Structures are given as structure tokens and as C-alpha cells.
Amino acid sequence: MSPSSPSPRPGVPAAGAAPDTGALPTVSPAPADDPRGLALGFTAYFVWGLLPLYMAVLAPAGALEIVVVRIGFALIFCLVLLGLMRRLGELGTALATPGRWGATALAAGFIAVNWLLYAVSVTTGNVLQASLGYFMNPLVNVLLGVLFLGERLRRGQWVAVGIAVAAVVVMSAAMGQVPWIALGLATSFGLYGFVKKRFPSPVHAVTAMTAETVVLIPVFVVGSVLLAQAGLLTTVTEGPAHFWLMAGLGVVTAVPLILFSAAARSLTLTTLGMLQYTAPILQFLVAVTVLGEQMPAARWAGFGLIWLSLAVFTVDQLNASRLHRRAVRAGDGARA
Predict the structure, then answer these.
(1) Tens of pLDDT along 160-175?
(2) 3-class SS at 188?
(3) Where is the composition biased (Pro residues) (predicted)?
(4) pLDDT tens, 209-237?
(5) Are 218 and 29 in contact (CB under 8 A)?
(6) By CB count within 10 A, which of 110, 133, 214, 323 is most buried?
(7) Interior angle at CA 93, CA 89 and CA 95, nearest 5
């Protein structure tokens, strides 16, 4: 998914989040939604939503190997892509100062944790938790704004957060433990988006993602060595078909990002916020209908509360956005 961050000012909804992507550009509201941009954005979220199906066929690769190999092949794919785009020189700009190195490393750390938790959710049969985590992500973004940016919640947002807390309690009771995968995914992706918003990269989205994978090269090298020593590097032991499936992780990492980046330039923030729910909805459907995860009554209750929370949150965001636009028009009229 694409990361999102707290709304930069009251009344303007944040851009939608999506599981499991690279760096995203700063998005400004567009005056109207372009149908082509809508199609590109939906395609990006559609790919992210079906990613559990792709990861499921990577067995017997474990979660750690999936992340390690993903870093390596994503870097290769992005370097080739940057070469074709004639943007390789931008890598120097992305990592030109200690401050940029630090921001890139922080973002890379959060997205690596997010990738690992996502891979764990698939390899352990907990895709429903991944879906829950990305449903929770917009609410986490709001809380990050309160904690780190001094933002104040509107009444509707407080209600939405309270319902979400009740959902976590219900899910914890149903599972016999706190849904740590869901909470970890929502938190890591929220923090990733927060870092990207607070320290925006001066380069193209693909260049920024490439810089993050460059920072993660030590993880790739050390992880590959340890997996090989333990006899767990299935990428090179399970035949050519498995190798190319693992190599495809680089493609499924970068392509949705490119589609989203193109879409974000021609869609309003409100539309992006609506599109973000495509991915967790698809993850939920895949988990229940294809992967056979069980949905007892208590789990339905937990998801129902999350959906109610998001409904309250979305209505509040739309109302706030409408009031903001009305105030802007009134101000323009007064100045005229």
C-alpha cells in the first residue's frame, strides 16, 4: 500500500495508504479527478490487495527470505528503471547529505519492518490481520498527527478512534492475544508515511525508493549469508521457476508505486483516501475465500467495529473537506 500521513491542515483529508510500497511523492489536491488517474490508482491498490496470493506461491520461502530477496531484486529493478528513465544521477541527490541519509535510513527501516510483518502474515496464515492492519492505518495516521504534530481531533475523529480501540479489544478477546501483526503493520506503515511527510525527498518517487533499498543493502547481504548458511535460501535451491517467482518481487514492489505516483498527480486527496480501502478489502476477501482463514462470530464483530469506525472517520473527513472548500470559496469571494 501507499503510505499516508496526517492531514497537513484541518479539514483536508490525508492521501490514502496502501500496503507495502516504496516512497511516495508529496501529493497536492487536484481540481478534478482524471479518469485515467483513477484507473491507474485503482490498479495500484488492486495489485497491493492481491499481493498475498503472489506471496503464497513463494513457498517454501520463509518471511525473512521473502524480505531479503525483495530488497535485492527491488534494487536491481529500480536501478534498471532509473537507467531507462535517465535518472540515475538523482541517487546522489537523494543521499547527498547526512540529513538525507538519516531520513532515508529511518524510512527504509520502517518499510522493511512493514514488509517483514506482511510476509509473516502470509506465511503464517494471518492475512486477515494484514487486512485489519491496513484498515486501521488511516486512524493510526490521525493519532500520529496528534502525538507528533500537535493536531487536535474533531469529535467525529474521537468517535472513530474510540470504536477502533473497542475493535482491537474484541479482536484480542477472540484471538486470545493482541493482534500484534495488524497493529505492527498499521504502526510501521503509519510511521513510514510520517517520516516521508516530515522529510520529503527532493527526487522522483522511484529514485527515493531506490535510495531506500540502497540503504537496506547490508540487510540484503547479511540476510542472504545467514539464510545460505542455514540452508534456507530457497531462491537458489528450488529450481528456475521458483527463482523467477522470487525475482518477481522486485516488479511487484516497484510497478504499483509507479502507477500510484502517476495517479496521485491527477486525483484529489479525497479520492485517494477512498481508493485506499481497495487493498484491505481485497486482502480480506482473499483470506476468507481463497486462503480459507476462519471468521468466527467474534472476529466478524471486530471487523464490523473497524468498518463502523472507518465509516464514521470517512464521513467526518468528507464533511470537513466540504466545509473547508466552502470556506475557501467564501474567502475568495470576499477578496474579489
Answers:
(1) 889 988 988 888 887 7
(2) helix
(3) 1-11
(4) 899 999 999 999 999 999 999 999 999 99
(5) no
(6) 133
(7) 115
> Where does residue 207 rank: exposed (0-12), middle (13-18), buried (19+ CB within 10 A)?
buried
The residue length of the chain stands at 336
Nine-digit cell string for 305 = 467495529
In angstroms, the Cα distances linking 312 to 8, 155, 296, 326 are 20, 10, 25, 21
CB distance 38 to 267 below 8 Å: yes
* Of 51, 61, 4, 27, nearest in space to 192 by CA: 4
Rounded to whole angstroms, the Cα distance separating 123 from 42 reads 26
- Which residues lie below 8 Å from residue 217, measured CB to CB, with a gap of 6+? 71, 75
C-alpha cell at 90: 538523482
Q: Where are the domains of the chain?
A: 35-320
Q: What is the rounded CA–CA span in Å between residue 211 and residue 213?
A: 5
C-alpha span between 64 and 220 (Å, rounded): 10
pTM listed for this prediction: 0.82
Helices (H) and strands (E) in the chain, counts: 13, 0
Residue 236 vs residues 176, 228, 243, 253, 307: alpha-carbon distances, Å: 38, 9, 6, 20, 42
Q: Tens of pLDDT along 3-36?
A: 443 333 333 334 334 444 433 344 344 445 678 8
d(CA 239, CA 306) in angstroms, rounded, equals 42
Place of cell 517454501: 60
CA distances to 48, 214, 264, 266 from 35, in Å: 20, 35, 12, 9
Cβ–Cβ < 8 Å for 51, 280: no
Burial state string for 284-312 with b = 16 or more CB within 10 A and e = fewer than 16: bebbeeebebeeeeebebbbebbbbbbeb
Instruction: State the chain's maximal CA–CA distance in angstroms.
Output: 72
The cell for 225 is: 549469508
Residue 192 has pLDDT above 70, yes or no: yes
